[in-house]
Amino acid sequence: MEEMLTRLNLRRRHLNVILKLDLKSAFDKVSWSFIKAVLAAMGFSEDFCLIVSNILEATRLSVLLNGQPDGFFSPTCGVRQGDPLSLALFAIVINAFSQSLKGGFRSGRIEGFSMPRHCHQVTHLAYADDIVIFTTTKKGSLRQLSGCIDSFLAASGLSLNQQKSSAIHAKSAQRADRARVKRILGFGSARLPLLYLGCWLDCGRSRDGSSSR
């Protein structure tokens, strides 16, 4: 992550931009049918998929009314937070999105940061529902990325929190670059330092003044 921040301001035809995605109530909204479809696509047996389906559908929730539980109801989506199985299932869901992104970058439809020769291409990072994408302000690339995000959201039942999702632009970014990202993706501009997994990161230095390299 720190290395990618140092590459944000590199001069190139299409400027680099870091996109931070915020999924709205992700654990509560993920589609059960999508979970089952992804498990099947990954090669899990029909019996295993049925077991997972039964576990999801057996979930019962209750609400407190004046401090007392009042009845139960059955949800139709989402996974229970705190359940070890839920963490694994959600990771599998995000991995499906990761594979879709990877395909877009590999095909060249989505443009990534330029990297040193013989260096591994880092296109995105994902930890649970904390997703960061490293791309450029090229119009065609942004449209392809938007389509990739929209397809995943439609299939998974998830949605983006547009108010919390943001774009961190290069220092040389012009108003037109920022407007293009806003128009295509709906992400407003943000500034460094970037809060990532509880840590504030900046180009070269962390918020506490120590080197981030």
Automatic annotation (TrEMBL):
Pfam family, one: RVT_1
Domain Reverse transcriptase: from-to ranges: 1-201
SUPFAM superfamilies assigned to the protein according to its UniProt record, in alphabetical order: DNA/RNA polymerases
InterPro entries: DNA/RNA_pol_sf, Rev_trsase/Diguanyl_cyclase, RT_dom
Protein name stated in the entry: Reverse transcriptase domain-containing protein
Species in which this protein is naturally found: Vanilla planifolia (Vanilla)
